[in-house]
Amino acid sequence: MIYADHNATTPCLPEAAAAVAAALVDMPGNPSARHHPGGRAAQARVDQARTEVAALLNARPDSLIFTSGATEACNLAIFGIMERLLATRPGIACPATEHAAVRAPVARLAEAGAIIVQEPDSRTGLVCAMLVNHETGVIQDLPAISAAAHAVGALVVCDASQAPARLAVDVAALGADLVVMSSHKMYGPPGVGALWIRPGLGLAPQLYGGGQERGLRSGTLNVPAIAGFGVAARVARERVATRSTHLTHLTARLEAHLRDALPALVIHGSTGPRAPGTSMITLPGLRSGWLAQLSSIAASAGSACASGTGEPSSVLTALGVAPADARNSLRLGLGEGTTAAEVDLIAAEVIRGALRLMGPG
Fold first, then answer.
1. Which residues are catalytic, by number?
2. Nearest CA among 193, 158, 190, 141 for reference residue 304
3. Alpha carbons 37 and 277: distance in angstroms, whole number
């Protein structure tokens, strides 16, 4: 089985897995219990990881808090801001192309009185804009979006989960006020993410208890996963250039094969800036069941969160793709371990599957 679903989750690096194992088997300790060596050792692991993840964003460590993943970080950012602004600035700009971890809390706020707007205005409190789209790989112009939002007094939350495995990320350059990260999207362990918060910005906590993470996210920290996240962040910073080059070459190779054999193929987002390693493809009018043809390839029809629902890709339908075609599209996500030979095999199987479906019946 060739793995081509890196947008859903990336394989955990051996060195990140080793950091998880070491934190599990070494001297036990809760990082909040700093009166004994085990607790202090656990806190040291958290501090080191916070430094590494912050460095990946070119940020200060004290501006970063750990969460259980990107979904929790998105919820904390959105509810934490709008709980304070809903009465005075009820507007939220949230495109339909955002991930469900953003769209769902925004929909909940709409039930509580928030107003969904297309363009930020003087009553807009929050603008949601992901850096790299999770299905098409399209890169949004975050500096321009942030400047437009700030011009009317709105804040910006950026889901950057898909970016660090492929691109350099600098929070100062983005201009956003809150930036979300996910460990398992960048070769770290699952179950941990992070939220960068612009210094000086206040959030309303969404989890209450012991007051961990500057009072914004109570609960005992998942030290093993955080330790692995830190290692993955360090490696991402060290390898960003080589990963980007590798994925750029592989993506061009894959898409050249597909276009040559399937001239009617649509590669979504290919006319603009796109993160390497992501190819979201559609053959308009193709009989359903394309994904089912890929017996030796692990791929998907879109976001992993929507897998098995039978619903068409919300990203593609928002882009105007017919529901039947959006439901029958493929997302091919390549990674740093993908080889040119595997790309050739992926292309061959995708092409064979399409040709079978284009045949009689």
1. 305
2. 190
3. 44
Could you give the angle at which helices 14-25 and 223-261 cross, rounded to 10 degrees?
160
Ranges of beta strands (E only) in 37-149 are 64-67, 91-93, 115-117, 124-128
Residue 159's alpha-carbon distances to 94, 299, 305, in angstroms, are 12, 22, 15
The CATH class that applies to domain 2-6+240-358 reads alpha beta
Domain boundaries of the chain, sorted by first residue: 2-6+240-358, 14-236
Sheet containing strand 91-93, edge to edge, reads 64-67, 193-197, 178-182, 155-159, 124-128, 91-93, 115-117
Rounded to two decimals, the pTM is: 0.94
User: Can you tell me the distance from the alpha carbon of 40 to that of 59, in angstroms, rounded to the nearest whole number?
Assistant: 24
Q: How many distinct helices (H) and strands (E) make up the chain?
A: 10, 12
Structure confidence by residue, pLDDT tens digits, 305-347? 555 566 788 899 999 999 999 999 999 999 999 999 999 999 9
